[in-house]
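User: Can you predict the 3D structure for this chain?
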Amino acid sequence: MTAAERKSLEQAVGHIYHTESLGAVDGPGLRYVFFLQGCPLRCLYCHNPDAQDAPAAHDGAAMTAGAAAKQAIALKSFLQGVTFSGGEPLCQPNFVRAVTLLLAEAALPAAIDTAGAPTLGDDAKAAIDAAALLLLDIKAADTAIAKRLTGQGNESALATLSYCEATSKPVWLRHVLLPGWTLERAQLEALGRLILPYKCIERVELLPFHKLGEHKWGALGRPYTLQKTPAVTQEELTWARGILESVGATGDR
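Assistant: Here is the predicted structure, written as structure tokens:
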């Protein structure tokens, strides 16, 4: 990398909602996590609803890629990598790519926690190419259910998954189990059939629905429609894994 290329990368600007210095659930090992501002989805169970608005409509901190990389590198001895989450990090693909390339020079691999690039253009592809791993959230196998659940269908997620397959980019697939929605036999079987052919998927993570972000909805004055929805039990989680196992589409692959 030339000095001019480095300077250009360092000057890229991103909008950060929050950072976590030692995240343990956002990819392999302990990770520095950048939660980026802005997301096109409106998931009913979103635990960061205050990160949904686009940066222009929010007073979240703007940060250069150079400063972001420096923050993570300062903790390198404790970390196995860095993860970009959100919000939707691929709404800010140039910033994600810039930080990722700067981290690579320090031997810190980056993962992108995404629901699929809103637009899978060259910028988003470049960010994916730079990352070591994608944590890809497929909201529902049925695009109509995904649209009711999030405001958009699953086309962006599947386009992103197909791009990862074509480029052999490792993927950890994530799927939220929501009672009455995705925690259903037919939906889980459909998901299993959908993802089974993809060789890029290294792991499937089933994420139990929780209400940890419910108080944020109230603080924003937004109605939370899942107040009466129960949390997923360990027994239900085991049952769901069993359904995916029946089609060979769960766990480490």
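The longest helix spans residues 93-105. The mean pLDDT is 93.
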